[in-house]
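hey m, so remember when u said the tokens were messed up on ur end? i reran from scratch. heres the input so u can diff it against urs
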Amino acid sequence: MSQAANRYAKALFDLAQEQQILEPVQGSVAGIRKLIIDLGDFRNFLGNPLLSYEERRSVLKSLFEGKVPGLTLDFLLFITFKNRLNLLKEISESFDNLCLASTGQVRAYIKTALPITDQDKASIGQRLHDKLHQQVIPQWTVDSSLIGGFRIFIQGRIYDYSFKNQLNHFAQT
């Protein structure tokens, strides 16, 4: 994540805490992040350099006014004014990490080669908890290209225990 995205996320987090509206702001930012992920048109809008500030401002107000907390809308308009709307996905991810960290939690993205049992998921989750001393919120996906094993992305680090990775290391030696 870029330093700019982290700074904007921290500013929004601090303001939301100061105004005691962290939960509603967190929910609205998560909803906006989902829009970015799910809607190609919205992603295109965020990255379109041909739109003027006024056009972007108008679209954002029509989409979000009255539907998100005022602080969230003001923040969206501010980053639009600063021409940083293209960082919104990164900002939302950084903001989510700050919210989780404030409650002693961390999100882990775990890819497995095959579907695994709930018992194995719990075991991996417990080992991560023991290592990080934080409550781990796992997001599981299956990626058959790993051949076997699993890969974990957590706190900007990748722990790769996949057969694919082991084969690549073997081929390099």
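this time it looks ok to me. DSSP finds eight helices and four strands in the chain. if urs says something different then somethings off w ur setup not the seq
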